[in-house]
Amino acid sequence: MGIQALNISKRFGSFVALDDVSIDVRSGQLTALLGPSGGGKSTLLRVIAGLDQADSGTVRIEDQDATSLPPQRRDVGFVFQHYAAFKHLSVYRNVAFGLEVRKRPKAETRRRVQELLELVHLDQFADRLPAQLSGGQRQRMALARALAAEPKVLLLDEPFGALDAKVRKELRDWLRRLHDEVHVTTIFVTHDQEEALEVADELVVINHGRVEQVGSPNDLYDRPANEFVMEFLGPVT
Ligand code: ADP
Ligand code: MG
């Protein structure tokens, strides 16, 4: 169960972006992919989502071989770094979109969207346009939209990247609480050590297309696998 990416390699031309990477995320776990910019985090997430095809390796999602499935059949919800909302649609319609395209019954869609807007504390803002929300509110809308079709897996690529420190901290706490409530298996990409340490159950440190270390926040601090991990994590604050 959960998500397994096994022996994933991916080249862009002659450049090796992922070099035989394997990760194993248990069901219900919140895992952070952590590492410096250019290390291959987004590429790995895109391979898991089915937005990119690996050159070799397999992807399993909840006991199903997903390697050759298109994204819409992988049962994943995702939020990417520069999230594009439908600007001309209300918050309600943005969240409902994924259910409408799946032709879910109207009453079910209404109930589900209402539930989700309450979950992300946007029920008072259902009729607004995305432009009338703050940055943090827009990111919460993106998460509600990703959760709409009840995916088994949630993939978040630096979802709080563009926000200021205070809002990031609020959203980070909120994501942790949300995860504790809904228990969706989640992979969260970040280059921010503090964010990863505070939010995740388990960290996968990725650099130059390779996994440097996997472990709990405590494991990584107590027993860094090598100098790179030690230096990247920096002193405990
Ligand atoms: P991260 O998310 O860890 O910052 P990425 O997965 O985005 O890293 O990128 C890893 C490396 O692969 C980078 O050097 C990047 O320039 C390269 N890369 C990513 N996508 C492409 C692409 N579509 N074409 C060419 N090179 C790419
Ligand atoms: Mg990235």
TrEMBL record:
<dbReference type="GO" id="GO:0005524">
    <property type="term" value="F:ATP binding"/>
</dbReference>
<feature type="domain" description="ABC transporter">
    <location>
        <begin position="3"/>
        <end position="233"/>
    </location>
</feature>
<dbReference type="GO" id="GO:0015418">
    <property type="term" value="F:ABC-type quaternary ammonium compound transporting activity"/>
</dbReference>
<keyword id="KW-0067">ATP-binding</keyword>
<dbReference type="GO" id="GO:0043190">
    <property type="term" value="C:ATP-binding cassette (ABC) transporter complex"/>
</dbReference>
<keyword id="KW-0764">Sulfate transport</keyword>
<keyword id="KW-0813">Transport</keyword>
<keyword id="KW-0547">Nucleotide-binding</keyword>
<keyword id="KW-1278">Translocase</keyword>
<dbReference type="GO" id="GO:0015419">
    <property type="term" value="F:ABC-type sulfate transporter activity"/>
</dbReference>
<dbReference type="GO" id="GO:0016887">
    <property type="term" value="F:ATP hydrolysis activity"/>
</dbReference>
<protein>
    <recommendedName>
        <fullName>ABC-type quaternary amine transporter</fullName>
        <ecNumber>7.6.2.9</ecNumber>
    </recommendedName>
</protein>
